[in-house]
# Entry
Amino acid sequence: MILVVDEIDMLFKNQGGSAKELFSTLNEWCEDKELPFSMIGISNSVNDINATTIRELSNTPHELVFPTYNEEDLLAILEKRIGKKIVDTKALQLIAKRVAASTGDARKALEITSNAVDKALDACTEKWLEEVEADSYPLVKMPQMMRAIREGMPTRHEEIIRGLPQAAKVILCIAVSLGKVWGPTAAVSIATLKKYAFQATQHAMLDDASLGQITNLVEMLLDSSLLTADHDGCFNFNANDHSSRLHIGVQLVDVEIALEKNLLEVSSFYRSLVDYVKRECPRPEYQ
# Structure
């Protein structure tokens, strides 16, 4: 007889002390050579306290650790489950990237994608759904996916901002402030972002920074989910093209709140950057 226990770590999370007694009994059966009994335990946790307890109680268990799904794996799973028509490709790439950087849990990626689909459907009228044609797809675009991600994967923006290097904090302040001043269609090139950051710091920072270094800072902020590169496909930011524009008018409200609490309320320097943008950076005519 082979007993397979999925998510065996949940046994200890939910049952407390009685779980140890039950597991010890099962383990004794496994070690009894007169009993045709074996047990396979499956767990998503390999380094937490419950995993340690399992190892201690089972003496020397045989372990086989599988790596978590990476971004390419998750994208392939999502595309196989829902196809390439319902959800915008960039939205699928975004959720695959976020989940891969967090837990690699395919169920979480599918759950958030399902939530994004629900949000898109809620925004559609019954008449539109009845008359929808092929050119109306994809149904789910970046706005719905971003909202679903924010609900399903709350990010600790404050902790991330505190850990940023000062130059990255400056770029974040300038970018978010420009987005608020210029409105939802605001977009800025790396060169323009560097110019405003340089001027706002009164030439005290980023004077010697190359466009490549500024790009690296922007990519750091994008990877940390503090900046959003694209919203609806109108802008295609390319880190290798310094003239391409970053869509900064679509930043998340919770990032603005975290920025206010972590930098603007505690530092006159960062507050001065925001004041400079409001005072000296009027909305360009082409925006």
